[in-house]
Amino acid sequence: MSNKNFGFGTQIRKSPYFDSTVKWGATGFSVYNHMYIPRDFGNPEQNFWNLIETAILCDVAVERQVEITGPDAFKFIQLLTPRDLSKLSIGQCKYVLITNEEGGVLNDPVLLRLGENHFWLSLGDSDILLWAQGVAINSGLNVKITEPDVSPLQLQGPKSAEIMIKLFGESIKDLKYYWFRELDLDGIPLIVSRTGWSSEFGYELFLRDGSKGNELYEKIMFAGKESGLKPGHTSSIRRIEGGMLSYHADADMHTNPFELGLDRLVNLDGNINFIGKEALKKIKADGVKRLQIGLEIKCEKLSGPNTIFWPLVVDNNVIGKVTSAVYSPRLKKNIALAMVDIKYSKIGLEIEVIIQEKNFKCEVIKKPFFDPKKQITSKSLS
Questions:
Q1: In terms of domains, do 55 and 76 share one?
Q2: Which pLDDT tens digits describe the chain residue by residue (382 residues)?
Q3: pTM of the entire structure?
Q4: Does residue 32 belong to any structural domain of this protein?
Q5: Same domain for 278 and 211?
Q6: Do β-strands 118-122 and 65-69 pair in parallel, antiparallel, or remain unpaired?
Q7: 269 with 223, same domain?
Q8: Is the distance from CB of 65 to CB of 39 less than 8 angstroms?
Q9: Residues 6+ away with beta carbon under 8 Å from 84
Q10: Residues facing residue 320 across a β-bridge
Q11: Which string of DSSP letters, residue by residue, matches 8-42?
Q12: What is the DSSP secondary-structure string of 236-298?
């Protein structure tokens, strides 16, 4: 879409930052969690370099929050996820999986604990609000589940810290990776966390008053002018380099945590009770038949991310599919996440991918493809 008339009708919600993103050059939108998300601010490779060299501001209001409150909120949130939350402190975030009764992944949100019995699930693209409300009806637990007026922005990249210091002062440097605090910016109520869907150092600013969206966006862009801040969109290149999942692409309800190598997010040994526990016990005992792998695709530079799943073959037999693929200008190669028959998951193995009816060689390589120890995202400012 190249014009400024992005009218899909009232059933698609606009973000509180919509007008500012159009003003700052958004030329293409997609739909995610029933809301517009800006997907195009020009060249995706330039957006990638802006992210890793300076900073970008991304409208991710589509990361809707499911708010869980009430006397039994902690018990309820533990029911939704196989990750042990017993050590989750107020003010802390955790990456979690939401699983169904078959052990399938329904979403992989970031969980924020705002109070003893007050939680947000910051969602990828899925209807977890409805799932949670449905689970609550039959849970026997006293909880209230709503979607609050909360809309995140992501300020990501190496210059994001100096921009945040301009906005909030030196004390922001004490905010640790995967922790958050409540802040007020000139009357704009926020939760600010040291998280983000970029594999780079950065922050998320959760706006708690949608009427102030464009005001917040403009304040951040103004504060970041001298630091080279650019408007941007979540970078497929960088998130694939970092091995980050995109729900519906790299995982869905027919994918289990063990296939994704996310065993650390599943606690089967403790006393915690969660949906899918028995199914996941059986899956672990039986062993998985598929596994997510990293691939280098040995063909000419890909023109952009894949828009369909590409079949992977050995001796003309389909053994899996490429779920996310892109050319990395930093690594100077085509990289991909794929789901394959476990027999073909060994590092160094050669298989073939079919792209537009042509076969190309691939090699199974280690993932994440860049910064495997997450030193960039977790570095300290103090």
A1: no
A2: 345 565 667 889 999 999 999 999 999 999 999 999 999 999 999 999 999 999 999 999 999 999 999 999 999 999 999 999 999 999 999 999 999 999 999 999 999 999 999 999 999 999 999 999 999 999 999 999 999 999 999 999 999 999 999 999 999 999 999 999 999 999 999 999 999 999 999 999 999 999 999 999 999 999 999 999 999 999 999 999 999 999 999 999 999 999 999 999 999 998 999 999 999 999 999 999 999 999 999 999 999 999 999 999 999 999 999 999 999 999 999 999 999 999 999 999 999 999 999 999 999 999 999 988 889 998 877 5
A3: 0.95
A4: yes
A5: no
A6: antiparallel
A7: no
A8: no
A9: 267, 270, 272
A10: 312, 340
A11: --TTSBPPTTHHHHHHTT--EEEEETTEEEEEESS
A12: HHHHHHTT---BTTTB-TT--TTTTT-GGG---SSS---TTHHHHHHHHHH--SEEEEEEEEE
- Structural domain containing residue 35: 18-60+150-240
Residue 341 lies in a domain: yes
DSSP state of 154: E
Residue 354 tokens read as 């079919």
Do 184 and 36 sit in the same domain of this protein? yes
- The residue assigned the tokens 């699930």 is 121
Number of domains observed in the structure of the chain: 3
Q: Are strands 105-107 and 98-99 parallel, antiparallel or unpaired?
A: antiparallel
Burial of 82 (0-12, 13-18, 19+ CB in 10 A): buried
- Three-class DSSP category at 48: helix
Answer yes or no: are the C-beta atoms of 287 and 260 closer than 8 Å. Answer: no
Distances in Å between the Cα of 295 and the Cα atoms of 44, 177, 291, 344, 350 are: 21, 29, 12, 11, 9
